[in-house]
Design a protein that fits this description.
By secondary structure, this protein is α/β, with parallel strands linked by helices. It folds into 2 domains: 143 residues, Rossmann fold, CATH 3.40.50.1860; 107 residues, Rossmann fold. 43% of the residues lie in helices and 17% in strands. The protein has 11 helices and 10 strands. The strands form 2 sheets. The protein has a 6-stranded parallel β-sheet with strand order 4-3-1-2-9-10, with helices on both faces. It has a 4-stranded parallel β-sheet with strand order 6-5-7-8, sandwiched between helices. It is globular. The chain starts with 6 loop residues before the first strand and ends in a 6-residue tail after the last strand.
Length: 267
């Protein structure tokens, strides 16, 4: 792969833009390709087999367009499909993401950590393995959050419906004594301002976007694949409603972005 080739980033929808922003900060010279599978959201309620099939389709789409690395900017997709993709493409740097159990366990003072995530993430074997590895000395309280992803997809980051949903999911975690909350879905960092308004100031929020960007940077450096720049404008493909998505992107992405339809027929 040439070093000036783009990085491919994939999520079930717009949530991965929170990770894309961290990649842009860490690697400002890189060109970025992003696929949001908005037409099939939410992944959190889908079967692992369905998610793996979608991930294969998007991965092949990005490989055909010359992506030098792939970032699964989706906790649910990583849980279901990252092992499958790495087996299929052993020569391709692939970075996944998972809920930040290890840093949250290190950060908690009360010994109780809350996890806000999708049903698919919380039910996965990989999440269970994370708890086995890193949560021996803490109590982890999980909270599935149906509906939150869809609110972010609509660009509703602080309206009454979003507020009511988020408040209903956070209150039980606080009642259990959680002093650290893991944002276990890439959509949720967009809700941080609202979440901060709903929780005490001393509650820590942990997500993994910056760690993913650092891991990607390390993999590119190991393979001598860092771009010299300047970066080309970010390109985004979506399987969803493009006019509606353009309105949402005004709230979620500050840079110029070329938006195109993702037509995966034939994959």
């Amino acid at each position: 792969m040439p070093s000036e080739a783009p990085i491919g980033v994939f999520d079930s929808g717009v949530g991965g833009l929170s990770v894309l922003a961290e990649i842009r900060r860490a690697l400002p010279r890189e060109s970025l390709f992003y696929v949001g599978d908005c037409g099939h959201i939410p992944y959190g309620e889908k079967s692992p087999e369905f998610i793996r099939a979608r991930c294969r389709r998007v991965a092949e789409f990005l490989r055909e367009r010359g992506a030098k690395a792939l970032v699964l900017a989706c906790n649910t997709a990583t849980m279901a499909a990252v092992a499958d993709l790495r087996a299929r493409y052993p020569d391709w740097p692939i970075v996944g993401m998972e809920p930040a159990v290890k840093p949250a366990a290190a950060a908690t003072r009360s010994g109780v950590v809350g996890v806000l995530a999708t049903t698919g993430t919380l039910q996965s074997a990989r999440f269970a393995a994370l708890l086995d590895r890193f949560a021996h000395d803490v109590r982890v309280v999980t909270q599935p959050c149906p509906g939150l992803v869809e609110q972010v997809e609509r660009g509703d980051l602080d309206g009454p419906v979003t507020r009511a949903l988020l408040d209903g999911y956070v209150r039980p975690l606080l009642a259990e004594g959680c002093d650290t909350l893991i944002l276990g879905c890439t959509h949720y960092p967009f809700l941080k301002p609202l979440l901060r308004a709903l929780i005490p100031a001393d509650i820590s929020l942990v997500d993994t976007g910056a760690a993913v960007a650092r891991r990607l940077a390390a993999l590119l450096a190991e393979r001598d694949l860092q771009a010299e720049g300047p970066a080309r404008p970010t390109r985004m493909w979506s399987s969803g409603d493009l006019p509606a998505l353009r309105n949402v992107l005004q709230r979620l992405w500050a840079e110029t972005l070329e938006l195109e339809p993702f037509d995966d027929r034939g994959y």
